[in-house]
Amino acid sequence: MEFRPLRAFVEVVRQGGFSQAAKTVFATQSTVSKAVKQLEDEIGVPLLDRIGHRSVLTAAGEVVYRRGVKLLADRDDLLAELDEIRGLKRGSLRLGLPPVGSSSLFAPLFAVFRQRYPGIEVKLVEHGSAQLEESLREGEIDFAGALLPTSEEFDWEMVRREPLIALLPSNHNLVGRRSVSLTDLKDTPFILFESGFALHRLILDACRRANFEPNVVARSSQIDFMIELVGAGLGVAFLPRMIAAQRRNAAVRHVLLEGPETEWVMAMVWRRGAYLSEASRAWLELVREATSRNDIPESTAP
Q1: DSSP 8-state secondary structure symbol assigned to residue 44
Q2: How far is CA 203 from CA 170, 194, 213, 215, 239, in A?
Q3: Please, how many CA atoms are within 13 Å of residue 60, restricted to the half-sphere of its CB?
Q4: Beta bridge mates, 92
Q5: % of the chain beyond a pLDDT of 70
Q6: How far apart are CA 165 and CA 245, in angstroms?
Q7: DSSP category for residue 189
Q8: What number of other Cβ atoms are within 10 A of residue 142's Cβ?
Q9: Considering just the CA atoms, what is the radius of gyration of the chain in Å?
Q10: In what order do the strands lie in the sheet with 164-169?
Q11: Prior bond to 260 cis, omega within 30?
């Protein structure tokens, strides 16, 4: 059913005739009459009983009028909501963020986004990269924070590139060096993130390229706990420089990890070819704006 004939019919009933209805819908009386006739033809029964210059609702006309008023009101509400969404006064943004680095990189952006678009609801999901990528594939989230390289099924916008830092016990024999390689550390036990974290995969893949399997003595999702394990002399852990710089421990020393393939490169990723809502486009534009102006906080030296 088209809405224009329905609106013409409703206004004929409301205004008490075709002439007044025509003024209300800014059309000629003939146009309104044709619209009502079109609606009657579509439904297959008369809606108005025309008696002289008066028109009286038939039984079918009463039903169509009652339902039509609600349909037109719902349509107006729908269009109003869509206008608000297009104007970023309403809507939602579903973000998946990894535990490592999100507070430093994205918390400042949240504050700006909320200030600009207070009507947009931001729904946050926090998981390791593997689970976030699966949620992205299934359409459960609009964006995910992920380390590069990522799957070819995703588009991405780079957010931050950081070298990795080896966190060593203060009495380790490599503490005095400016930098170390993974090969230098192959005899040291490794303390890694859980397997669902991209940083776990990054370290293991780099070790395999260096032709050794590390002795992994602990896995955790808790950065502070991992640092405490290093301080207790259990082994070496790895963090992006910006994260390591925020967590100093007297029993732990920071040494730069050599090698471009061990860089931590955080990106905002989304499904290639996916529809991006107005809220999603606004978030992506904010990310690009912040990175182009270097508004993402810089880290300090190790």
Answers
A1: T
A2: 22, 12, 10, 12, 10
A3: 12
A4: 121
A5: 95
A6: 9
A7: P
A8: 22
A9: 31
A10: 179-180, 252-257, 164-169, 236-240, 190-193, 216-220
A11: no
Cis peptide before 149 (omega within 30 of 0): yes
Residue type, 214: P
* Residue with token string 């170390």: 180
How many percent of the chain have pLDDT more than 90? Answer: 47
Tokens at 266, concatenated: 């955080």
**Mean pLDDT of the 78-98 span:** 81
* pLDDT 10s digits, 136-180: 988 889 999 988 888 899 999 999 999 999 999 999 999 989 999
Q: What tokens does 172 get?
A: 């380790």
* End-to-end Cα distance, the chain: 68
Q: Give the sheet arrangement for strand 264-271, strand by strand.
A: 121-126, 92-97, 143-147, 264-271, 154-162
Dig out the tokens for 31 from the structure: 């146009």
As a 3-state breakdown, the chain gives helix, strand, coil percent values, each rounded to 5, of: 45, 25, 35
User: In angstroms, rounded to a whole number, what is the distance separating the alpha carbons of residues 253 and 166?
Assistant: 8
Token output for 292: 């182009």
pTM of the model: 0.69
